[in-house]
Design a protein that fits this description.
Layout lengths: L1 H8 L12 E2 L1 E7 L14 E7 L14 E11 L3 E10 L2 E5 L2 E6 L6 E9 L2 E11 L5 E7 L6 E2 L5 E3 L16 H13 L13
Antiparallel strand pairs: 1-12, 2-3, 2-4, 4-9, 4-12, 5-8, 5-10, 6-7, 6-9, 10-11
Length: about 200
C-alpha cells in the first residue's frame, strides 16, 4: 500500500518513455542470514532491484551465499488448459501464479526438481518465483509443459513487467515564507493538531 501511495504522489516524475510493461521480470535481491519462506521474506530489506530476462540469477549480481531473489511480473500462456511447471532449485523456491501456490519447493536441499500443475486461460497471468540460497551450491531453473506436451524452456518473451523509476527534481533553494510559517503555527495550535501530531516527531 505504501508503494502504491508513493507511486501515485510521484506520478508526474515518470517519463512517458518509461511507462508500460517490458519483456522480463523484476528481480529483487535480499541479503539473508537464515532460511526464508514467503511469509518471512518481508523481514529483510531489499538490497537491489533490477530486470531479469528469465527466472535465473546468472545475469544478476549476488553474493555466493545467504541471499534471496524474488522474481515478479506477468507470464503469458498461449493456450488454455492444464499447464505443468517444473522448478529446480538449490536451496528453496516457490512458484505463484495469480496468487496461487503452484509449487512449494521450500527448505534446505540440494539441486532437485519439483512439479506443479495449474489450469490457465490463454493470456497474461500474475507471476512470482521466490528463491533463496543459504550455503554451498546454488541453482535455479524453471520450465513449463503446455497442455499435452513435454517440458520445455520458457521463452523470455513470455515474461513481462513494469518497473517504474522516477526522475529526481532539479535541485533548488527552498526559502521559508515567514508570514505563512506563522499562520501555519497559529493554525496548528488553535485547531488542536497537537493532540495527534507532535512537532519534530515522525508521523
Amino acid at each position: 500500500e505504501a508503494d502504491a501511495i508513493a507511486c501515485y504522489l510521484l506520478r508526474d516524475q515518470v517519463t512517458a518513455a518509461r511507462e508500460g510493461p517490458k519483456t522480463g521480470l523484476i528481480a529483487t535481491r535480499y541479503d539473508i542470514d537464515r532460511p526464508i519462506k514467503p511469509d518471512t521474506i518481508s523481514q529483510f530489506d531489499p538490497v537491489e532491484t533490477t530486470i531479469a530476462s528469465s527466472v535465473s540469477f546468472d545475469e544478476l549480481d549476488h553474493p555466493d551465499d545467504r541471499f534471496a531473489i524474488r522474481f515478479t511480473g506477468m507470464i503469458k500462456v498461449p493456450s488454455s488448459g492444464v499447464w505443468t511447471f517444473e522448478l529446480v532449485s538449490d536451496d528453496g523456491s516457490w512458484l505463484f501464479i495469480d496468487g496461487d501456490l503452484v509449487i512449494d519447493h521450500g527448505g534446505l536441499h540440494s539441486n532437485v526438481a519439483r512439479q506443479g500443475t495449474i489450469e490457465l486461460e490463454a493470456g497474461d497471468h500474475e507471476f512470482e518465483v521466490l528463491y533463496f540460497e543459504l550455503s554451498v551450491d546454488e541453482d535455479l531453473a524453471l520450465e513449463w509443459a503446455p497442455p499435452g506436451q513435454a517440458l520445455q524452456p520458457i521463452p523470455e518473451t513470455a515474461f513481462s513487467a513494469e518497473m517504474i523509476t522516477f526522475d529526481m527534481p532539479e535541485a533548488h533553494s527552498f526559502v521559508v515564507d515567514e508570514a505563512m510559517r506563522q499562520t501555519g503555527e497559529r493554525a496548528f495550535r488553535t485547531l488542536g493538531c497537537a493532540s495527534c501530531h507532535v512537532p519534530g516527531a515522525p508521523y
